[in-house]
Amino acid sequence: MQNKLFTLTFLILINTIVAQNDSTKIKRVPIDTIKPQLNMDAVYNRPFLQYGKTPVALGGYVEANTQYAVTDGVTEGFSFQMRRMTLFVASTISKKIKFLSEIEFEDGTKEINIEFAALDIQFHPLFNFRGGVIMNPIGAFNQNHDGPKWEFVDRPISATQLLPATFSNVGFGLYGKLYKPKFVWAYELYLTNGFNDNIIGNKQNKTFIPATKLDPNRFEESYNGEPLTSVKTSIRYKRLGEIGLSYMGGVFNKFEDDGLTLDKKRRADIFAIDFNTTIPKIKTVITTEWAWTFVDVPDTYTQQYGNKQQGGFIDIVQPIIKKKMFGFEKASFNAAVRLEYVDWNMGTFKETGGNISDDVFSIVPAISFRTSQQTVLRLNYRYQWQKDILGNPAAKTAAIQFGISSYF
Amino acid sequence: MKTRIITLCILIIIVIGCRKIMPKSPKEEELLDGPIEGLTAQQTAQFLKGDVAFNDDVFTPQNGLGPLFVATSCGSCHAGDGKGHPFTTLTRFGQIDSTGNQYLNSGAPQLQNHAIPGYQPEALPVGVGFSKILPPANTGLGFLDAVTDADILAMADPNDADGDGVSGVCNWVTVPSYCQHRANYISQGGRYIARFGKKGAAYDLLQQTANAYNQDMGVNSAFEPYDTYTKLEVDPEVSNVTVHDVVFYLKTLKAPKQRNQNDAEVQSGKQIFIALGCEKCHKSELKTGTSDISALSNKTFYPYTDMLLHDMGSALDDNYTEGSAKTYEWKTPPLWGLGLAKNSQGGSYFLMHDGRATSIEAAILLHGGESQQSNNNYQNLSVSDKQKLIKFLESL
Predict the structure, then answer these.
(1) 3-state secondary structure of A16
(2) Which among B313, B303, B388, B394 has a CA at the least distance from the CA of B353?
(3) Nearest-neighbour CA in chain B from A290: distance (Å)
(4) Dmax (CA) of chain B
(5) CB contact under 8 A, B118 and A302
(6) Which residue of B has its CA nearest to A201?
(7) Which candidate from A201, A304, A365 shows the least CB-CB separation from B76?
(8) Burial of B262 (C-beta count, 10 Å sphere; 0-12/13-18/19+)
(9) Considering only CA atoms, which of B30, B35, B78 is closest in space to residue B258?
(10) Considering the domain boundaries, does residue B8 fall inside one?
(11) Residue B22 belongs to a domain
């Protein structure tokens, strides 16, 4: 699998290099700035490069950073991290048929994933068919996660350790949009392969829905024969911003095998709400998301694994200076802050009635310099309090991070 | 221009702020984890390997958990190497005297009260006697392990020859074949002096560790190869090397340090502690013999235990026992680290063998049997003296 992906990557790069030999034929596919955009549009609304009149457009982004982190006075020193390199290939097969794939290399080549590889067929703006490897639309970050769009080196904890960030599966579904003068409304509905038992049996020692991504066979077959349902609806009013409501749920356990019943069907259900807006006069951008998960953990299992969780984040980004700087025409300098919280185990201990903790809170002030919308240099400072399941004194972590991220 | 100045100011504040508010290490004496002083580089490396296996290794159904279990990792029961919390309380049952456990075919001695999905956990047989046992702190175990049998036996006074009302006996047990006898061990009718566990029935830290993998997590090893669910001998799910690393880690965890030793009230509290007769069992000072870990050899340390069994009275008699202990006998728990217990128990005290005491005073008042006189003495103290005593105990 890895070899095939390497070959594909190699071909894409060769193609790009060949294309660069005649730079006059390479053009940047303009990003749609006329129609109001939703988070669900992020997958296509990227700065692709196209060679001549070929129907194929290429793109990608890269993220790298260094960080110095200290937890309760103990540090591992400086680390340089190649978080990810992602390659996109988009193809317009006909006016109403498109294909897009996204392949991500994380932490060097430690993880190589097909994040998206789907064919879209439009029958009507309100009725589009999508099939292939689909990114399940839970929350907004999962749909709109490209590194260069964010002022923060780390992805939100709630998006990566409560929800499964960039969670994609094989499946089919429908989506559509309705444009009106004052608003745009959209929906998505997919059935895909889904969860597995890793949710309540993992090295995190907690109910951890992202652990479902560790099943290497999820692109090949369903773990339990039960489809995962993902539904999202969102609406953007011109002045108010975009609000999205999403749900993802399904059976996570292998309840039968070879026709024999092993357990009852156990579900994991996730609900999320997301919102983003820009305050017109001061151009402050606010992005927030909150999610709740409900997991049917057997009563006879350990309380280490909770059956209710919640968490979310809010990002506030304030452009400070926006003008030509250092020769960059559309440069900007921004200040930002992120507040985030996750409680992996809501509830109380059966034995004592005391609160089950297992939660984290962090605050991340940041500054960023954008040479354009496509490229960002960012300096973050993170301060984090993390409590264990018993609620013992929090482990305090602080980190200074400097990173770059850019589309290419 | 104004914007630039503001931006510059924000930058400067952030950079200075970052330097100032990096989280500092807690004070050394406030931590229970960390190695003893004097380990070689090789020993430190093994300590770290054991630390990872103990605190970071999580068992799941895929790598050996269960099918029946109590907890999913060592660290689940011993957060920060301190005392445990009632949510991982162990339940032992089925033995009422030294003739052995009569319920081995019913899952004894330990109840596995959890099961992986698709399995049913064990239930207590009707009418059986049982004890709830809170996970103990791990600190300083290597020092206790290195005390010689002769020194322990010297503290015993089975017939109360000195007439002080306090006896103290050893728990004589049959030692598993995989345990090696200590140097200069003392035996009695094929039984040996055990020293770990609330009943003091585990001979050494290897037995304690192998049992915990097997009985607490349902993880089999070459030492304890019988699965608690099927009762069949199965392949090891944890390697011998890992078990030995964990044993080494436990042996070389540092001993808790007393805090505020120079505080006048703490010093006064210690005198009260001795005057009440508490020190007859909670011996403040012990010494190690020769150990194969030189950093543990011939050291004087301050655990506040005599490592012996004592009659604690009917209120603490659960009608369950281990080894040669009576159902009303409990091993004197070390008091070192007592003041830090809340930091590993979620901010509250859960004291005595089953965590039923939620304050130090409540724990004192539960002392019966041989310790009843000390309990009475405590109740006769003035409020001020009680506070001094508690302050001393919290300094440990």
Answers:
(1) helix
(2) B313
(3) 27
(4) 91
(5) no
(6) B60
(7) A304
(8) exposed
(9) B30
(10) no
(11) no
Residues contacting residue B264 through CB under 8 Å, at least 6 positions apart: none
pLDDT grade for A50, boundaries at 50, 70 and 90: confident
What's A153's domain CATH number? 2.40.160.10
ω before B23 within 30° of 0 (cis)?
no
Contacts with B, A 92-131, CB within 8 Å: none
Cβ distance B114 to A301 less than 8 Å, yes or no, reads yes
Shortest CA gap B72–chain A (Å):
7
A267-279 vs A328-343, strand pairing mode? unpaired
A17 pLDDT tier (thresholds 50, 70, 90): very low
- Give dist(CA B188, CA B158) in Å, integer: 15
Buried b (16+ CB within 10 A) or exposed e, B214-253: bbbbbbbbebbeebbbeeeeeebbbeeebbbbbbbbbbbb
Domain count, chain A: 1
The partner residue sitting opposite A398, judged by closest CB among B21, B58, B345, is: B21
Cα of B335 to nearest chain A Cα, Å = 20
- Using the Cβ of A263 and the Cβ atoms of chain B, whether some distance falls under 8 Å is answered with yes
Residue pLDDT, tens place only, B292-338: 999 999 999 999 999 999 999 999 999 999 999 999 999 999 999 99
Of A158, A221, A179, the closest CA to residue A38 belongs to: A179
Count of structural domains, chain B: 1
Choose among A294, A293, A295, A296: nearest CA to A264. Answer: A296
Distances A43 to A118, A161, A287 between C-alpha atoms, Å = 11, 22, 18
Rounded to 5, what percent of chain A is helix, strand, coil? 10, 55, 35
pLDDT tens, position by position, B63-116 = 999 999 999 999 999 999 999 999 999 999 999 998 999 999 999 999 999 999
Which chain A residues contact residue B60 at CB under 8 A?
A: 201-203
Instruction: Calculate mean pLDDT across residues A163-179.
Output: 94
Q: Is residue B304 part of a domain?
A: yes
pTM listed for this prediction = 0.91
What distance in Å separates residue B221's CA from the closest CA in chain A? 20
Structural domain contains residue B160: yes
- Chain B window 66-95: which residues touch A at a Cβ cutoff of 8 Å? 69, 71-73, 76, 79-80, 85-87, 89
Q: Is A391 on the interface with B (CB under 8 A)?
A: yes
Q: Which domain, by its residues, includes B357?
A: 35-395
ipTM score? 0.90
Neighbours of A23 (CB within 10 A): 8
- Beta carbons of A367 and B11 less than 8 Å apart: yes
The rounded percent of chain B whose pLDDT value lies above 90 is: 90
Q: Residue A348: pLDDT above 90?
A: yes
SS (H, E, C) chain B: CHHHHHHHHHHHHHHHHHHHCCCCCCCHHHCCCCECCCCCHHHHHHHHHHHHHHHCCCCCHHHCCCCEECCCCHHHHCHHHCCCCHHHCEEEECCCCCCCCCCHHHCCCEECCEECCCCCCCCCCCCCCEEEECCCCCCCHHHHHCCCHHHHHHHCCCCCCCCCCCCCECEEECCCCCCCCCCCCCEECCEEEECECCCCCECCHHHHHHHHHHHHHCCCCCCCCECCCCCCECCCCCCHHHHHHHHHHHHHECCCCCCCCCCHHHHHHHHHHHHHCHHHCCCCCEECCCCCCHHHCCCEECCCCCCCEEECCHHHCCCCCCCCCCCCEEECCCCCCHHHHHHHCCCCCCECCCCCECCHHHHHHCCCHHHHHHHHHHHCCCHHHHHHHHHHHHHC
| Res B179: pLDDT | 96
Q: Cβ contact (<8 Å) for A365 and B72?
A: no
